[in-house]
């Protein structure tokens, strides 16, 4: 059988549901753990000062990653009617990656870093550039119902990159060189695995840069991109404040405390994803009572997860993080509990975010992000200057609380308005 043009029939039936589930879960887990592992490696091998520089550079790179991805992966993967071709999506990916490079250069320069800090930031932006590029093939595999291939690729691309990153640091302790080597390995993996594997599934020609088509893809993805960019920026506000008025050691401590906050949202996702289809069905059928019950249940689950994780952190959080990262966190338990509360509020906000997407009021989420960012920007620097790491944690939690309240109000108003139609 030869590869079909766009229906992706070849090889799709060869992957079992179990295989797809396993590799997709593994890919998601490894991708989520990569930032934890890289920071751990830098802290252990290079010390907390270099780890602080790395953390700031990584935060910038993560923000720039949203430009490279431009939320086109999900749109591409869910384009069931083939509104745009593989060639057109590939062209769009190339455009957004070029844009990511340009913005990264300007954005890093705006911080006025010294040569070393700038080199680390640029190297990490290059590293995330290949992640953005790889998302084209991940989206294509997902569209073809071969998430096992996308997950397999994500696992081994990330593992190889992290192993090489650690290896170079062990040999010479140079974060920039280690990041460059990791970036090169990702580029080689994409060329050696993703590209030929996708060609076995579909025939893809040269990228199609037709301006009219590219404009339509841009317009379709723009609202989602703005939301993802603002969400990433919100996570960085406290880190930027530490960069302005704090020290590299403070940056390292804050990022170590900040890492477990993602655990709450990770657990919530396991409950939320299976509920989205049911929520959409209830809303479509105007079954508002069951719809509301699911939203409330998810909020309760978020609260329970937050309480459990907070309790565990109160007992073993600091000893575990000290053992894991090898740095002293004496006296930082209150800060850890505060930032974890922020993580819980952010997870609850995501319940309302998904609810707004289901009722097709997703454009309103921009209001919540803008309000939260403005509040965080106003309070972050004064709090960090006055209370150090605790101030950064408080600023982050205040921003998450503002996002939660705003999303809740917008959701209730939007749902009631649409219910009357």
Using only C-alpha atoms, the radius of gyration works out to 22 Å
Give the amount of beta strand, in percent: under 5%
Q: Please state the structural category.
A: mainly alpha
Write down the overall mean pLDDT: 88
Q: Helical percent range?
A: over 70%
Q: Count of DSSP E strands?
A: 0
**N to C succession of SSEs:** HHHHHHHHHHHHHH
Oligomer kind: single chain
Give the N-terminus to C-terminus distance in angstroms.
50 Å
Which parts are unreliable, with pLDDT below 50 for 5 consecutive residues or more?
Answer: 6-13
Total number of domains: 2
Main beta-sheet annotation? none
The shape, in one word, is: globular
**Total of helices:** 14
Quick tags:
mainly alpha, 421 residues
């Amino acid at each position: 059988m030869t590869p079909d043009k766009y229906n992706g029939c070849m090889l799709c039936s060869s992957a079992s549901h179990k295989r797809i589930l396993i590799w997709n879960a593994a890919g998601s887990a490894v991708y989520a753990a990569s930032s934890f592992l890289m920071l751990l490696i830098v802290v252990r091998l290079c010390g907390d000062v270099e780890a602080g520089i790395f953390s700031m550079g990584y935060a910038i790179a993560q923000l720039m990653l949203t430009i490279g991805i431009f939320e086109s992966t999900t749109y591409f993967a869910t384009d069931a009617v083939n509104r745009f071709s593989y060639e057109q999506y590939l062209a769009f990916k190339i455009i957004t990656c070029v844009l990511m490079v340009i913005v990264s250069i300007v954005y890093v320069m705006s911080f006025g870093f010294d040569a070393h800090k700038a080199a680390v930031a640029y190297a990490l932006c290059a590293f995330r550039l290949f992640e953005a590029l790889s998302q084209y093939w991940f989206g294509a595999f997902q569209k073809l119902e071969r998430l096992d291939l996308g997950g397999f690729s994500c696992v081994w691309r990330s593992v190889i990159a992290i192993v090489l990153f650690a290896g170079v640091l062990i040999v010479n302790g140079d974060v920039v060189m280690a990041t460059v080597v990791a970036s090169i390995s990702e580029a080689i993996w994409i060329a050696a695995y993703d590209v030929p594997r996708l060609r076995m599934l579909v025939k893809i020609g040269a990228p199609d840069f037709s301006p009219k088509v590219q404009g339509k893809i841009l317009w379709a993805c723009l609202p989602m991109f703005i939301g993802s960019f603002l969400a990433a920026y919100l996570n960085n506000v406290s880190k930027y404040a530490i960069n302005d008025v704090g020290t590299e050691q403070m940056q390292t401590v804050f990022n170590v405390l900040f890492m477990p906050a993602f655990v709450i949202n990770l657990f919530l996702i396991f409950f939320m994803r299976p509920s989205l289809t049911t929520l959409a069905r209830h809303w479509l059928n105007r079954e508002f009572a069951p719809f509301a019950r699911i939203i409330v249940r998810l909020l309760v689950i978020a609260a329970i997860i937050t309480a459990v994780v907070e309790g565990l952190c109160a007992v073993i959080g600091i000893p575990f993080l000290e053992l894991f990262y090898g740095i002293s966190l004496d006296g930082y338990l209150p800060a850890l509990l505060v930032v974890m509360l922020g993580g819980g509020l952010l997870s609850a906000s995501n319940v309302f975010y998904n609810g707004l997407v289901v009722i097709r009021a997703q454009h309103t989420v921009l209001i919540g992000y803008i309000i939260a960012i403005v509040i965080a920007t106003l309070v972050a620097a004064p709090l960090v200057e006055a209370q150090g790491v605790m101030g950064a944690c408080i600023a982050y939690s205040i921003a998450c609380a503002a996002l939660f309240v705003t999303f809740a109000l917008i959701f209730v108003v939007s749902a009631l308005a649409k219910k009357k139609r």
